[in-house]
Amino acid sequence: MKAVMFTEYGEPDVLHVAEADAPRPGPGQVRIAVRAAGVNPIDWKARSGMIRDVMPLQFPVIDGREAAGVVDEVGPDVSGVAPGDEVFGFAVGGAAAEEAVLDDFARKPAGLAWEEAAALPVAVETSLRVFGLLGGVGEGQTLVVNGAAGGVGVAAVQIARARGARVIGTASEANHEFLRSLGVEPTTYGDGMADRIRALAPDGVDLAFDTAGKGGIPDLVALTGDPARVATIADFGAGALGVKVTGGAEGRAPGALDEAAALVEAGRLSMPVAQTFTFAEAADAHGVSFEGHVRGKLVLVPG
Asked: At what angle do helices 256-265 and 121-133 cross, to 10 degrees?
């Protein structure tokens, strides 16, 4: 099968399409014919060697962590799914390939585009894992999401709104109208962020979620009044301040993908796909992701 691979750390151009052995599903797993695979910042961080100390790689590596497609083989101890079913989920051993094995998956809602389905797993699971670390997000609470227009931010604000929370989101001004369409009260990040948020929420902020990692942690701690009410997925040095830091090593949020599917079917969750690339254009996708400012997600498709 064809797959997006790399055999050494480096710039995006180390990515290339090559032949690889088709994987086989193990217990609790399914194999899919991939229709689309999501692109996440963790992909280029791993490829570049930026996080090799905490996530060393065994080469060769197939790129990607999330995919959507049609089940074509079911492993032992799997029930409720059969060849021909359409699913989305987390890949084991790489997602950007013609065939991928999923170890955590859910049925794709009818009518949901393959690209949108492939863009959901990481963003939704990350959001729900963070909400769990913060003790839950729900009715009557005010949540600040720093970096609200990226993939994780977009998922987080919609899930929080579906649970009844008030959400204030930071983003560039170009994304403010988009955030308003999701029920979010937008403001800009950077100098003066805390004052701008206090003006929107004079009664205070309950919780804060940093997806951006661009120096906003002190403001978020000041706004909530307690570092334990702040969580980040992007500023790994913030743990020294008492902020909750998560990279997923502690395990995935259970039931995240089923919750995502239910919210999609209820019209409460959508994931905009900013741009789609073929497997051969994977290096371009990594470059765009590295530059930031993506509204929603980037996706790879075979071809």
From this structure: 110
Residue 213 has pLDDT above 90, yes or no: no
Domains and CATH numbers, the chain: 2-120+271-301 (3.90.180.10), 124-245 (3.40.50.720)
Residues with Cβ within 8 Å of residue 192, at least 6 apart in sequence: none
**R_g over Cα of the chain:** 19
Give the model's pLDDT for residue 214.
Answer: 81
pLDDT of residue 250: 87
Strand bridging mode 99-107 / 86-92:
antiparallel
| pTM for the whole structure | 0.96
User: Which residue matches tokens 């962020």?
Assistant: 193
Map the chain to HEC letters. CEEEEECCCCCHHHCEEEECCCCCCCCCCEEEEEEEEEECHHHHHHHHCCCCCCCCCCCCEECCCEEEEEEEEECCCCCCCCCCCEEEEEEECCCCECEEEEEEEEECCCCCCHHHHHCCHHHHHHHHHHHHHCCCCCCCCEEEEECCCEHHHHHHHHHHHHCCCEEEEECCHHHHHHHHHCCCEEECCCCCHHHHHHHHCCCCCCEEEECCCCCCHHHHHHHHCCHHHEEECCCHHHHHHCCEECCCCCCCCCCHHHHHHHHHHCCCCCCCEEEEEEHHHHHHHHHHHHHCCCCEEEEEECC
What is the average pLDDT across 178-206?
Answer: 97
